[in-house]
Automatic annotation (TrEMBL):
Annotated GO biological process: nucleotide metabolic process
Coiled-coil stretches: none
Entry-linked SUPFAM superfamilies: HIT-like
PROSITE patterns named in the record: HIT_1, HIT_2
Intervals of motif Histidine triad motif: 108-112
Top-level taxon of the source organism: Eukaryota
Taxonomy of the source species: Eukaryota, Cryptophyceae, Pyrenomonadales, Geminigeraceae, Hanusia
Active-site residue numbers: H110
Transmembrane region(s): none
Protein name per UniProt: HIT domain-containing protein
UniProt GO MF annotations: catalytic activity
Native species: Hanusia phi
Pfam families: HIT (PF01230)
Length: 162
């Protein structure tokens, strides 16, 4: 799809990404059905950090239709199992921020699946991110803007897609 369909005033970034699929966005997609899309986070906290996003555009989880909420729940379970298998991490966080005050950056419901490794988590999520960046397990680079994914990134993405 081309970039000739820009973000509209009433459209969230995620709605635009799912509609237009700009650049190499298709490389990030790991799951899709008629109600939900999951894709690798462009700015991952750890390898395998995945977003699960309903195609229905609402800001907060309580605003989802019952049908979409059900589809999101099913997709979360499927994608989380794939992230576990792909990363070898048995444990993970599923995080959602509802509204700007709660830390939501894109006003469109989305769930983060963040695989966790021994020693990279503390009781404070924000604190654990900062500590992880300074540790021997640094935050991964931003995903590439162009071209096909290669190496470790492609391996993890393909394993989550499987």
């Amino acid at each position: 799809k081309s970039l000739s369909s820009p973000l509209t005033m009433s459209e969230s970034l995620f709605s635009m990404l799912m509609r237009v699929r700009p650049g190499n966005f298709a490389e990030q997609i790991v799951y899709e059905d008629d109600k939900v899309m999951a894709f690798l986070d462009k700015f991952p906290q750890v390898d395998g950090h995945t977003l699960v996003v309903p195609k229905e555009q609402v800001e907060k989880v309580h605003e989802l239709s019952a049908e979409t909420a059900s589809a999101v729940g099913c997709a979360l379970s499927k994608v989380a199992a794939r992230v576990v298998a792909a990363t070898g991490c048995a444990d993970y966080n599923v995080i959602i921020n509802n509204g700007k005050i709660a830390g939501q950056e894109v006003p469109h419901v989305h769930f983060h699946i963040i695989p966790r490794r021994e020693g990279d988590y503390t009781s404070s999520w924000a604190k654990s991110i900062e500590e992880n960046r300074a540790s021997s397990n640094p935050r991964p680079d931003k995903l590439p803007d162009e071209g096909a994914f290669t190496g470790k990134l492609a391996t993890i993405r393909d394993a989550i897609r499987a």
